[in-house]
Amino acid sequence: MQTTDAQQGGEREGEAAEAREAKAAEAPEAKAAEAREPRAAEPGPGGQPDASDDADTREPDASDDADAEEAEATVEADAEETVTAQQAGEREADTAGNPEADQADEADEAAQDQDQVVAERADEAPVAVAEAGEAAPAAVDGAVIAADLDAARAEAVSYLDDLRRLQADFDNYRKRTLREQTARTASASQALVARLLPVLDNFELAVSAAEQSRDFDRMLKGVEMVFGELREVLQGEGLVKIEAEGKPFDPERHEAVIAVEQEDTEPGTVVDIVRAGYELRGKVLRPAMVKVAK
Fold it and tell me: Which of 195, 275, 201 has its CA nearest to residue 237?
């Protein structure tokens, strides 16, 4: 029933459109024929035909041509509306009479929409992949940099710990060395003093003997013995007397106090020793004060 009503409605709309098209087509044709048909010249006031009527008879009016063109355009527009109305009626009839066709159209539209969405996603996929490809190396580089930074920090902490340990060890070594040097100096002084004690005892005996006896020879002999003993002790410690007399002057071992004229002596030769000089284990402890020939 619905199919029949729709079909009838479409047929009625088609007939109405054809009627309008025929009416529109007749109107411009009539106007064109009237425009093309010459008008009879009306007599003028003196019984002569009017000049304006002759001009209308001889030449078609421009306004008539415009009206004809407008009528033709109207006919074409009405024809197009008629065709559109017929097509719409046919589609409505087909739609009303075939529900399966409606479902098929809807399915086609849904499929087209889905295809369009898939195509858009396919277009967006390369862009997303490219962005992901650009972001992946940046993330990898950031992870590598972070790992290198952590390793460098750990290495710096290790170096700092080693440096602190080394500094502490050096401080301990310096303090230990200073203590050992002080102890060695004290031990050396103690040994030297211990070896000088007998010399001191002999000096005391010599002085005591000189007080009891005025024998000069015995006192001299005792002093010479004490002197020899003292010299042995000092030589045992590495003390050596610097030889200077008759030697060329050496500014590193000799100290000139006066220059004298000496026959049969080359200039710059030490001729006399004013005060003896000594070396301790090869190092000048005190230079010898000498007289030098000029």
Answer: 195
What is the sign, positive or negative, of the torsion defined by CA atoms of 55, 56, 57, 61? positive
Domains of the chain, by residue range, sit at: 2-40+48-97, 240-294
pLDDT tens per residue across all 294 residues of the chain:
444 454 555 567 667 667 666 665 555 555 545 545 444 444 444 444 444 444 344 444 545 556 666 666 676 666 666 666 666 556 655 554 555 656 666 777 777 777 777 677 666 656 555 565 566 677 778 888 999 999 999 999 999 999 999 999 999 999 999 999 988 888 878 888 888 898 888 888 888 887 787 777 888 888 888 888 888 888 888 899 998 888 899 989 999 998 988 888 888 899 999 999 999 988 999 999 999 998
User: Which CATH superfamily, name and number, covers 240-294?
Assistant: Head domain of nucleotide exchange factor GrpE (2.30.22.10)
Give residue 270's region: left, alpha or beta (phi > 0; psi -120 to 50).
beta
Could you say which DSSP state residue 10 is in? H
Task: Write a three-state SS string for 27-75.
Answer: HHHHHHHHHHCCCCCCECCCCCECHHHHHHHHCCCHHHHHHHHHHHHHH
Please report the beta strands in 168-227, taking only residues with DSSP state E, as ranges in sequence order: none
- Read off the pTM: 0.39
Q: Could you give the dihedral angle defined by the CA atoms of residues 146, 149, 153 and 156, in that order, rounded to the nearest 10 degrees?
A: 160
